[in-house]
Each structure stands twice: as structure tokens, then as C-alpha cells.
């Protein structure tokens, strides 16, 4: 859901409306599973593109990469 909302920006959706919705959806997803990479990536992108919050963007992007790396290691070990 967060990705759908994020990708609506170029389709004429007001970023002032869509950004809070995508942030809320990402936060909700992280409540269920804080190890998901994609919600962290969405938050990182929103911090960068909308808020110009470079440190917040970097922090969320790092979390996304850490969780992606961990998931890749889990998959490699499982095989």
C-alpha cells in the first residue's frame, strides 16, 4: 500500500495529501513487522523528497538496507 501511495505522486495526487498517507501506511507496516525493508525505504524517500531531511532519510535508508541484507542472508542459508 505504501508503494502505491508513493507512486501516485506523478499521477496528479497532491504530495501534501499523499506523503502523510504513505508515512502512516509505512509506520503501520513497521508496527506489524519492524524488519520489513520497504516501509523504511518509503520513509527514507519521503524524508528526502518531501522534507529535505537528509539525516532522517539516511537513517531510514540504512535500516532498509540492513533489513534487505539480513533477509538475503536468511534466504541464502535456507537454500
Order of helices and strands: HHHH
List the quaternary state of the chains: single chain
Poorly predicted sequence stretches spanning 5 or more consecutive residues: 1-8
- CATH fold assignment: Serine Threonine Protein Phosphatase 5, Tetratricopeptide repeat
Beta content: under 5%
The Cα radius of gyration reads: 13 Å
What's the pLDDT, averaged over the residues?
A: 80
CATH architecture: Alpha Horseshoe
Shape: elongated
Q: Percent range for helical residues?
A: over 70%
Give the CATH class. Mainly Alpha
| Total individual domains | 1
Q: Assign the structural class, choosing from mainly alpha, mainly beta, alpha/beta, alpha+beta, or little secondary structure.
A: mainly alpha
Largest sheet: none
Please count the beta strands (DSSP E, at least 2 residues each): 0
Pick out its properties:
mainly alpha; elongated; 4 helices; Serine Threonine Protein Phosphatase 5, Tetratricopeptide repeat; disordered N terminus; 79 residues
Amino acid at each position: 500500500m505504501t508503494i502505491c501511495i508513493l507512486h501516485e505522486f506523478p499521477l496528479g495526487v497532491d504530495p501534501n495529501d499523499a506523503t502523510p498517507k504513505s508515512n502512516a501506511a509505512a509506520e503501520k507496516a513497521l508496527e506489524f513487522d519492524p524488519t520489513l525493508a520497504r516501509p523504511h525505504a518509503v520513509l527514507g524517500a519521503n524524508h528526502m523528497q518531501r522534507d529535505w531531511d537528509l539525516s532522517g532519510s539516511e537513517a531510514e535508508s540504512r535500516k532498509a538496507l540492513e533489513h534487505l541484507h539480513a533477509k538475503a542472508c536468511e534466504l541464502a542459508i535456507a537454500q
